[in-house]
Amino acid sequence: GAVVSQHPSWVICKSGTSVKIECRSLDFQATTMFWYRQFPKQSLMLMATSNEGSKATYEQGVEKDKFLINHASLTLSTLTVTSAHPEDSSFYICSALGLAGTYEQYFGPGTRLTVT
Amino acid sequence: AQKVTQAQTEISVVEKEDVTLDCVYETRDTTYYLFWYKQPPSGELVFLIRRNSFDEQNEISGRYSWNFQKSTSSFNFTITASQVVDSAVYFCALSEALSGGYQKVTFGIGTKLQVIP
Predict the structure, then answer these.
(1) How far apart, in whole angstroms, are the C-alpha atoms of residue A94 and residue A96?
(2) Which of A97, B58, B103, B109 fits a 20 to 30 Å CA distance from A55?
(3) A7 near A76, Cβ under 8 Å?
(4) pLDDT digits (tens, 9 = 90+) for B57-94
């Protein structure tokens, strides 16, 4: 149980275009999901906290107009990178919060974005 | 603000050696959770352990063991008789509870472990 999927697993897009990444909790409902970014050989950095039915909470330094997050249902959160630039190339990982009080996050397999 | 320090960026050991990965954390919360994750080359994070701040009991799971010491704010991870399959980046992480029941997880920079056959 507690499986989180991401789609696509990798994507290449041209500079200036937008790309959407989906994060789904397959066998549980997640009121809270998280989006992380990981640059090569670096740690995971939290970008935003996504709450079902409400606006996402962005970390300091993350442009909310560039990284659009929509948590439309209890099993799906999407991250849209708008007007992508080569510096947005990174590994994007989502996670979903499990049962209340357990503080355990279930991570998706990640999406590798390359902007050319 | 919370902080997680993994002072060892890269470690190389010969297969069958024991290896300890260090993790030191900072937090002002009295209630928090500590985690260890493994990230193999494929990139997917693998959950290894979660420990809450009120449980200082050490844990052993097969070849893995964890030593949690609140007095030194450390949560070290030991792999006994290392194997090539243990080669990966290992992240220590700290979760604090924020108001409203939300949590925020801070990851350490990671320790890259290479086990040489």
Answers:
(1) 7
(2) B109
(3) no
(4) 888 999 999 999 999 999 999 999 999 999 999 999 99
